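User:
Care to share a sequence and structure tokens?

Assistant:
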Amino acid sequence: MIIFIGPNRHRSNVASLREHADAPKYDYRSYNWLFRAFRLPAATYIFTSIDRLDANERRLAGKIYRHINKAGNGFRALNDPAHAMGRFRLLCALYEAGINQFNVYLAYDAPKPSQFPVFIRRNSLSTAPLSGLINSQAELEQTIAELEREGEPLDDLIVIEYCAREVAPGIFQKWSAYNAGGQISLNYAISESSWLVKYGEIDIIEEHFYAQELELLERNAFEDQVRRVFEIAHIEYGRVDFGLVDGEPQFYEINFNPEFRTMEAKSLVEQRKQNVLFAVKRRVQHIAQLDAQQSGSVGNLSDPDITAFRLRPWRNYAPQRY
């Protein structure tokens, strides 16, 4: 059994896992359930959507994460809520490690980026950037001031140096790779006619690219770099998004709760369809290997902070937010 832990509103992210023949037996439970349960069944627990928890919820969930990993055979937890890095910390760490060529700054810290253009986005939410590309220091300062006047909390805004390249005139690509408990698998690329590649546009790139894509998929390209990024981030399950700049991966963020839907399977190019199926099948097989395949249960952690959170409704507000 695999148990995904996350907010109720993200249940649909893993729902389509059931559609795959190689999928393991799994369940999805909320953080509300995790904090209130008196017993925990034997399973591999995958903590998702950690970036949606506040600091106290992360601390309490981190205690249960450790409790599960000490429970013996049949019990395993992935993604330490107390230590897994969010967007800002990760980008800082990757720049300092020399992995990324671009840096990131806190908006409230009067940032002076070393290179332009830059853009502004929220740190705590996976929403679209709040600005387009900003080309000068004066424009950056003006944009930050405008966002502050509009009510954006500056301590949740980050300024990111732009780092992307066209792969064809007017076309950008984003790659991704998955980590399932240490097993890394490259995913197919998606393409858009915008530097901000989000969902991908179907079949907008020349067909010869798909043969190159298959070659990269088959040899699981960039595996070592991807593994290092997950290690730095202290994240054991998730999807990292990156672009290729001069042939080298530049890593943008890690999603703790990636979806299993494959819009790219709607492609009209047969090679593209095969590439998607290859990548998804390998990913699902890696996840299936996380199945604990044990029975039994253990008592949940006995801890005064968790008891207080469980019994005092004014402290237990996470379910209402999710």
About this structure: The chain has three domains: 2-84+295-317, 103-161, 172-288.
